[in-house]
Amino acid sequence: MSERREILQHLCDDLEARLARYRAHQRRSLDKDSREQAGEVQNDEVVEALDQEAREELAQARHALARLEAGEGEVCERCGETIDPRRLAALPYTTRCLHCADT
Ligand SMILES: [Zn+2]
């Protein structure tokens, strides 16, 4: 499953690049005087939400990568069953089987 490792590594790099862009946007916003402009504030909120989402995704991708490197990448962290390879292919960052993902 070294292919999945590459996918996860790439995902981490990608998310880190995205987070760097969001941080740059947030710094620019702080410098602005015209923050009361509705469009600008709304945009900031969107970026803030995306930033939060990317942070969580990155944490999950790193977590999955760590489990993969520990030799547990294909095992559900909750019930210990093998995760369906099709699920891993579709969601490389998942660490739970289909059954446990919903609970
Ligand atoms: Zn499970």
UniProtKB/TrEMBL annotation:
Taxonomy, superkingdom: Bacteria
SUPFAM superfamilies, alphabetized: Glucocorticoid receptor-like (DNA-binding domain) (SSF57716)
Domain Zinc finger DksA/TraR C4-type: 73-101
InterPro entries: DksA-like_N, Znf_DskA_TraR, Znf_DskA_TraR_CS
Chain positions of all zinc fingers (dksA C4-type): 76-100
Record-annotated DnaK suppressor protein-like N-terminal domain positions: 6-68
Name of the protein this chain belongs to: TraR/DksA family transcriptional regulator
